[in-house]
Amino acid sequence: MKVFITGATGFLGRYAAREFYNKGYDMVLSGRNEGRLKKLQARYGCEIVTTDLSNIKDISTDADFVVHCAALSTVWGRWEDFYNINVKGTENVIDFCKRNNIKRLVYVSSPSVYTEERDRFNIKEDNFNIHNELNFYIKSKILAENTVKKAEGLETVILRPRALFGIGDTSIIPRLIKANRTIGIPLFNEGKNIVDITCVENVAYALRKACEEERAAGGVYNITNIEPCQFKGILERLFARLGEKAVYRKLPFKVFLCIAAVLEYVYKFFKIYKEPPITRYTVMTLGFSQSLDCEAAKRDLNYTPQISIEEGINKYARYMRELKKRK
């Protein structure tokens, strides 16, 4: 079987490539960074295509599956950018699939669509506000999902993986480490809020299963490590393995939510596209509990996490220690 992966040079895309390669798939890896693509080609002996989502519909392939990982993943920016990449880009991928008679498209969405100003537990896939416009990223993901669901003549599967971490992560853990070494990690409600995180290897595994399992066609699936735990507990485990003391900055939630709202208003009014120091989405993510129900993925994808949070943290910590020695 053959898989075409968009965003193959990104964090998740690289792990997806490794997962499919290890299972004997032929691959076509696409992305904008030709240098990184050539490194992947040297490692896996696969085809590569240097392109962005605006031009992908002009590409020809004989792949069986398309795994669409490419996206603009940030909490702030221009709506035009989010629309062109996440919505219009997904429309282009669908056109690409239809022109090339692709059997199934697996689309990587986001559980950020569940974000609300309250604690939420065991959230099922259909339990979200389709009009959620907390930020442009969420809005664009909801619109892109709707586009995928309406694609005629094409099998589709949508995954919503929660809080990916692992070696190569450029977002979650690096931000926590930077905060810990500078101002301290923001902590609301003493860090007792329940969160779900996911080892990136498990998401890559879920992507492969989403291609292979026939009954997954047309489905939407939450993907986590299925190990919900307290936010502070995760931090303590992480920094203990890194050999650092966790430093916290206990903050009043409502005050910071108001500050974030004011900052967002000012940034929008003056058309400042750099991310504000804090956003409502960030405050809500750090301050409220959120856990996802993964029963549908367990049932239809035969999904079981391959790596535990403990294993994922240990792998990351070993990598960071080895990296430090080489410097």
3D architecture notes:
There is one protein chain. The relative contact order is 0.14. The protein has one domain (2-326): Rossmann fold (3-Layer(aba) Sandwich). It is globular and about 55 Å long. It has 327 residues and is α/β, with parallel strands linked by helices. Helices cover 43% and strands 17% of the residues.
Through-space gap between termini? 41 Å
Biggest sheet character: 7 strands, parallel
- Uncertain segments of ≥5 residues (pLDDT<50)? none
How much helix, percentage-wise, in residues? 40-55%
Rg measurement, Å: 20 Å
Name the structural class. Answer: alpha/beta
Number of domains: 1
Q: Supply the CATH class.
A: Alpha Beta
Which range does the strand content fall in? 15-25%
Q: In one word, what is the shape?
A: globular
The count of β-strands is 15
CATH superfamily: NAD(P)-binding Rossmann-like Domain
The name of the CATH topology is: Rossmann fold
Widest sheet: strand order?
3-2-1-4-5-7-12
Work out the helix count: 11
CATH architecture: 3-Layer(aba) Sandwich
Q: Mean pLDDT, nearest integer? A: 96
